[in-house]
Write a structure and sequence with these properties.
The protein is mostly helical and 88 residues long. Helix content is 64%, strand content 0%.
């Protein structure tokens, strides 16, 4: 039995990755992200340490947000109650 590797071609993989992406929206998001990075760099007075600290704080904030969402999901009062469940 031969292994069919046609589905692993780079062209098919690339087509599968971009299949559901809205082109103009993605371009706008990239442009806004680039503008944000330029703003951060210019606001840091071209001192790389300040920019690194801002990125570090942003990463920490993202990790704290994710941890908070995980903890919030574990709390018993955040789960849907059986009495509130929709009955057919």
């Amino acid at each position: 039995m031969a292994l069919d590797t046609a589905f692993l071609s780079p062209r098919r993989l690339a087509a599968g990755l971009v299949e559901g992406i809205d082109g103009p929206l993605f371009t706008l998001a990239l442009a806004l992200s680039a503008l944000g990075l330029v703003t951060l760099y210019s606001a840091s007075y071209e001192i790389p340490a300040r920019l690194r600290n801002r990125r570090r704080r942003a990463k920490f904030a993202e990790l704290a947000r994710r941890a908070g969402r995980r903890v919030y999901g574990l709390l018993p009062w955040t789960k849907p109650s059986a009495s509130l469940a929709h009955s057919p």
